[in-house]
DNA sequence: CTCGTTAGGAACCGCTTGGTCCCTAATGAA
DNA sequence: TTCATTAGGGACCAAGCGGTTCCTAACGAG
């Protein structure tokens, strides 16, 4: 046929995700993006449509790589206490300082890009569902409706935690807070 | 002396705040900014240093105009239930869709601008203090430490609420959630 | 009225932006 | 070996960026 591609698409997207995640969409210009992806303009525009479409692909990549993993981690958690399963959401990740890509995308890009808005909401929804599963399995609270409500509250806390973290707001220890929220310890 | 200024500085900053708040820093270019402020390039650079310094001034303006008002509203609230005082934080404001300027700034600008990071944290801190005052006055929970913790949780919920709102995440009714959080109704 | 001073505003600046073009290199099928 | 096809990569592009310059207009002090 013809000359084969010299780079791995998935690996390039991974590099793009890294820099979009860290810097946001507008702050990442083509030179930076190309460097992060490890390719030159020619290869980029041969393989992809444009900067915006790659941004969306990085969201999908984040979904497959991070969200799916997190959901699996939550749903597969065997700890007795729900708070122990949910704590990882409130500790600094290895990518700490980046914040959460979903949160960044929601604030920076979603308002002017319906596809991104939909995608971020979809990912958030899946996280919420996973959180609810954690609560359901352990029979937290008194009803499914209450657990759904609680899952939504925890989801909002998570995004608040991520948003505030980007300004350097000091990370408290959230384990006690979660326990209290889930009524796993008697409120003193 | 000399020719007097034809526009009102504070009013111009107010227009700038409006557009920075709605669109963010990078997405707002000079033509848009000038239109929002109601002046031309010449007047702009006579009166202000540059785009970035005006952005910071809009943060200060937001502080004086919105944060201060909100803090006063919280601290002056006479309702018996804390949740009734805090509910306004979780309803759509007239500027709904803009999100919260502090949250936007934390996510978009703070990571690469220490002055902005500090300013946003300061405003968040003042909101937190006001929330704690609301809780203290009504003796929510069992200790000052617990109320401080709860105030921080509510603050995080608020930012999560604002961040997610920017993607169009549907606004639930938060009054019941707040009541539950503050243990104003017996957990069923 | 005169004149020094400052605001207003348009033209202009160098630079960066995202994206295209086009030539060359590398490949596999015939 | 030949050749059609596609990747790689640098040069190039128009448009937009934030910011400056400079001329004119409008004022107030004298």
UniProtKB/TrEMBL annotation, chains A, B:
Pfam families assigned: TetR_N
Location of the HTH tetR-type domain: 6-66
DNA-binding region: 29-48
Keyword Membrane belongs to the record: no
Key word Transcription present: yes
UniProt keyword list: DNA-binding, Transcription, Transcription regulation
GO MF: DNA binding
InterPro entries, sorted: Homeodomain-like_sf, HTH_TetR, Tet_transcr_reg_TetR-rel_C_sf
Record-linked Gene3D superfamilies: Homeodomain-like, Tetracycline Repressor, domain 2
Name used for this protein in its record: Copper outer membrane regulator
Gene it is expressed from: comR_1
């Amino acid at each position: 046929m013809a000359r084969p591609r010299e780079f791995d698409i998935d690996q390039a997207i991974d590099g793009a995700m890294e820099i979009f995640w860290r810097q946001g969409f507008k702050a990442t210009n083509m030179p930076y993006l190309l460097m992060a992806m490890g390719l030159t303009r020619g290869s980029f525009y041969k393989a992809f449509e444009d900067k915006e479409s790659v941004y969306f692909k990085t969201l999908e990549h984040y979904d497959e790589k991070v969200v799916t993993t997190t959901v699996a981690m939550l749903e597969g958690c065997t700890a007795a206490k729900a708070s122990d399963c949910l704590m990882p959401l409130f500790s600094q990740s290895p990518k700490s300082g980046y914040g959460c890509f979903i949160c960044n995308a929601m604030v920076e890009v979603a308002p002017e890009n319906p596809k991104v808005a939909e995608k971020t909401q979809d990912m958030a929804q899946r996280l919420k569902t996973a959180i609810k599963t954690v609560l359901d399995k352990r029979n937290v609270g008194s009803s499914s409706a209450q657990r759904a409500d609680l899952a939504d509250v925890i989801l909002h806390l998570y995004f608040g935690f991520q948003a505030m973290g980007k300004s350097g707001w000091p990370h408290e220890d959230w384990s006690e807070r979660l326990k209290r929220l889930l009524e796993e310890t008697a409120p003193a």
